[in-house]
Structure formats: C-alpha cells, structure tokens
Design a protein that fits this description.
By secondary structure, the protein is of the alpha+beta class. The chain is built from 3 helices and 4 strands; from the N terminus they run H-H-E-E-E-E-H. The chain has helices at residues 3-7, 13-27, 83-86, and strands at 40-42, 47-53, 58-72, 78-82. Strands 1, 2, 3 and 4 form a 4-stranded antiparallel sheet that branches. Strand 3 (58-72) and strand 4 form a beta hairpin. Bound molecules: zinc ion. Zinc ion is lined by residues 32, 34-35, 37, 72, 74-75, 77.
Length: 108
C-alpha cells in the first residue's frame, strides 16, 4: 500500500490530539468501566458501524457511522465517539469540518 493510500487510514497528530482532548473533556478523571485503569490511548484511525435497514432486513453498505475511539491499554475496552462531533472529517478531507463552537470552552 502506498503512502497516499495510507493517508485515508491514519489520523494526523492534530486529529489524535482532538480525540484525546474530546475524551478528556467528557470523561475527565473517570477510569475504565471494566478494569478501573486510567491508561487510555486514542486509536489511530476512523472506524465505522454498519447501518442496518430494518425494513429490508440487510446492512446498508452505502451508509456508515464513523467513529473515533480511545482504548484502555490495560484491558482493551474501547470507548467511541461520533467522528463528526469530535471534528474528524471522513470525506472532503481538504475542507475543515463544521463543528459548533462550545460557548463554555475557554482557550486558557
Ligand atoms: Zn480497562
């Protein structure tokens, strides 16, 4: 696989920081729900849940729910967030994602 093909798979360092910041903002000091560890690590790519068409009783390959995750490095439990809400685009990568600014968030 060429470097160019890898571009779509790997989150950038800035995106990994977004995942970690989002997680820290919402999970904070809470520990892993399985083992109680605080050793979390963001995963380096976007993953998807497949959408199920409940009328036609099959998976829709044209619809996915992209999410980014952090994993407990002690037991492997994974916690995921919707990629769009975290600010990680999954198409039109050259376009900045539109993310609502949090009015309560301060920069310092
Ligand atoms: Zn754990």
């Amino acid at each position: 696989m060429s470097d160019n093909e890898d571009l779509g798979l790997q989150l950038t360092k800035a995106e990994l920081k977004k995942v970690a910041r989002h997680f820290n903002n919402h999970i904070g000091e809470r520990t892993c729900h399985i083992c109680g560890s605080k050793h979390w690590q963001p995963l380096g790519s976007v993953h998807t849940s497949v959408v199920f068409d409940r009328v036609n009783n099959h998976h829709r390959q044209d619809r996915v729910i992209p999410h980014v995750s952090v994993a407990c490095m002690n037991c492997g439990a994974i916690t995921s967030f919707l990629a769009g809400i975290v600010g990680i685009p999954h198409r039109d990568l050259e376009i900045e994602p539109v993310v609502a600014e949090d009015a309560n968030e301060s920069d310092g």
